[in-house]
Amino acid sequence: MNIREVINSGKVDFTGIESSYFLLGLLSAFDNRFQAMADSMMKEISWKQFFAIICINLCKDKPTVKELAEIMGSSHQNVKQILLKLEKKDFVSITADENDKRKQRIEITDHCIDFCNKNDEITSGIMKRMFDGIPEHQLQATIQTIIQIEDNLKKIQNRD
After folding, report:
1. How far apart are CA 150 and CA 73, in angstroms?
2. How many angstroms separate the CA atoms of 106 and 94, rounded?
3. In this predicted model, what pLDDT tens digit does every residue of 76-130 receive, in sequence order?
4. From residue 45, how far is each of 50, 90, 126 by CA, in Å?
5. What is the C-alpha separation between 30 and 14, in angstroms, rounded?
6. Three-state SS sequence of the chain
7. Are strands 92-96 and 104-108 parallel, antiparallel or unpaired?
8. Nearest in space to 32 (alpha carbons), one of 20, 19, 47
C-alpha cells in the first residue's frame, strides 16, 4: 500500500492535522519505505551503508568519522558501526590521520568503486522512476523547505 492509498483508505483520519505535523510524518514514513526498498535492491550492503559511501564520495578530501557523521546527520557511534561493517566488506579503509593520530580518515576502496560502477545504471533508473513527473521547481522548493527545517532544528538543539 502506498501513501496515497493509506491517505484515501478511510482507515486513518488525517482531518485537522497541521501541515507541519503531516509533513514530518510523511517524511518519516517515506524514509522507512525507501530504506526497505533500497535494502531489498542491494544485496551486498544496506541503504545506510550505501548512503555513507555517497557522502564519502561527496567530500573533497578523505573525511574523518566526525565529519562524515555531521554530513550524514547521524551520531559518531552509528557512523562508526556502519564504517566498520563497510571495512569488513572491503568497501572502505579507515586509517589514522597523518597530522592527528586521534582522528580517523575514511577512504573508498577499489572494490567499492567497482560496486558503484556496476550498480550505477540500476540506481539511476530507480531515481528517474522515483522522481518521474515532478518538475524541477517543485524539487527545488522541497529542497529549500527541508534545508530551512534543518536550520530551525539546529537552532532548537543549540538552545537546549
Report:
1. 10
2. 5
3. 999 999 999 999 999 999 999 888 888 999 999 999 999 999 988 888 999 999 9
4. 7, 11, 17
5. 17
6. CCHHHHHHCCCCCCCCCCHHHHHHHHHHHHHHHHHHHHHHHCCCCCHHHHHHHHHHHHCCCCCEHHHHHHHHCCCHHHHHHHHHHHHHCCCEEEEECCCCCCCEEEEECHHHHHHHHHHHHHHHHHHHHHCCCCCHHHHHHHHHHHHHHHHHHHHHHHHC
7. antiparallel
8. 47
Q: What is the pTM of this model?
A: 0.83
Q: Write out the three cell numbers for 80.
A: 562508526
Retrieve residue 9's grid coordinates.
483508505
Residue given cell 500500500 in the structure block: 1
